[in-house]
Each structure stands twice: as structure tokens, then as C-alpha cells.
């Protein structure tokens, strides 16, 4: 079948890498692997990160203006369903529901969230639009239990709610290598807000490590790079900045790393955790909603335990190659068992079939 695909936060062909883009691309790959033809319906970006009501109105008007052409295109190309990836109160799907209704085709959401507390305040218009999208959806694939709670409360009687575990596009994984004696690795866009908060926690934990026992490579770039570099400045040459990496460069960074260190402040789940574990790396992270759902069983300290608990985990892994090896193999097995393409294809196929998409 021909499926229309849309990602209102960031289109899958956007040049700037991110977990959101990676998951959108993974979804397209899975849908194609299931035998469907996937058409990128629109590159309209609806995101408003500041809570600007005027901007929300402007983008909504832009979205409305595209509807007639999208409906005509859908009829001409024979779209059989509309699939939207990641609609929420800062980047709602403003076009998929109306187009699907006009074409009489199933409307399917993946990683949609409801946020009732945002129905008043600076994002009220957008939060209302995100709720409307959820209300219109024939099926919603949720990625985490945290998202499922709100979706279940607001679900309409005939709506299908299906758990889709976050996944990589690999069919299988190679055997995990022996634990590397290389540097620790942190991977994250350098943005203000949650990403910068994770970098701040990293710096606080590093300050508690013995000076002669570690090195860190940092992959990522963005508007908060100066603040991140300032946080790492006290550690001098022990921290190396790699900048933005392409897929091959990032794979090489995983291959030489001893472990992944990323606290995960307010991550939806964290695509980087899947990539690192697939490469056989143990992970040092905090026990956070969403994040815990993609991590292998392990000792992940609570946020209340602070940087000291993270530093203790880092020291334990850095001091003991055998512990790293065991943790890395367990991490890779967890991904192989739960987060690869064949499992995702099977879940998507069953879920789409439940709304008549076969």
C-alpha cells in the first residue's frame, strides 16, 4: 500500500542529526520492509519551542493553506493511510487528521502524546491541536509506558493503542567485542534546556573522578556548544570534542569507547542508548521514565542520588574490564531481543492490519 508519512517536528531528510530524525527514518525503513510504499507527504515544521501564540497561529494558517493540495495529491497518488511520527504540544500534527478524513483513509500516529496541563498557558492552541490529532487517530503506536498512561485516559472506544518498542534498523547484531580500554563517550546535541542539563550533570560527575583514570569524547554540536565547552574546560585535554558525526564516524566512536555516559534528562527514550548498547557498550545513565524502557537491566541511580552515584558507576566500570565486558554483552543482547527491525516490522504490521491497512 502507499502510505503518506509526516513528521511535524523535523522531516526525516532534515540535514541536522537527532534522535527524532533517526526514529523517523527507522519507521520509514520498517514500513518499507513490511511491503509498503512510503511517500513523504509534507516538510511543514510546526514546532514552536517558545510558547508564542502568534507564531502558533501563523503556522496553523500555513498548515490550513496546504490542505487542498495535499488532499488532491493524496487522491492522485492513491494514499491508503496517513502516518504521523511524533505529534505533541510543541509540534502538533496540524494537517494529517483533516487530510485523512477528506480521503476516508486511516489516520495513524506514532509517538503521540497528550498533555492536559498544557491546555492553558502559552501552548494552549498547540496543545489543543495535539489533543485533536489524538482524538482523530484510528490507531496510536506508543513507545513508552509514560506516554501510554495519558493516551489510555483519553482514548476513544474504537481507537487502537499499540506498544511499539523503539528500534534500530538492523536485522541482527554482531557479537559484542571485548570491553575497550578507550575513552568514555557522550553523545548529545548541544541545545539549551534538557540537553545542556545532561551535560551539566556529566561535568559534575567528572569532577568527582580521580584525575588519572579517565578520558571522555563528546559527539554533538549545536547552539549551546560554548556553554558545554565551558562546563568541560576544567578538565583540559581529558575531554575531546568530536563535533557532529556521520553514521560511519559515530559507529567508529562507539567501537573505540569503553562505555556510554549520558544522564538522559527528560529524554523521551534516547535513541543513543539503543545505538551504544547495540555496539556492546555498557551505559551509565540515570533511572528516568522512558530511558529505563530501552536500557538493559542494570544499576542506574535515581536522579535524587545525584552526580556522585553516576561517578561511582563510572569508576566501577572503568576499573574493571570484565565488568564492562559482561555489562556490554548484556546490553547488546537486550537490544537484539527487543529493539531490532524484525520485531518492529511485526508490530507495525499487526497494528496497521487492525485498522484495515494490509
UniProtKB/TrEMBL annotation:
The keyword Kinase does not apply. Pfam families: Glycos_transf_1 (PF00534). It comes from the Bacteria. InterPro entries: Glyco_trans_1, Glycosyltransferase_grp1. One of its GO terms (molecular function) is 2-deoxystreptamine glucosyltransferase activity. Keywords: Glycosyltransferase, Plasmid, Transferase. Residues 202-333 form the Glycosyl transferase family domain. Its EC number is 2.4.1.284. It is an enzyme of class 2 (transferase). The keyword Glycosyltransferase applies. This is 2-deoxystreptamine glucosyltransferase. It comes from Sulfitobacter dubius. The gene is kanF_2.
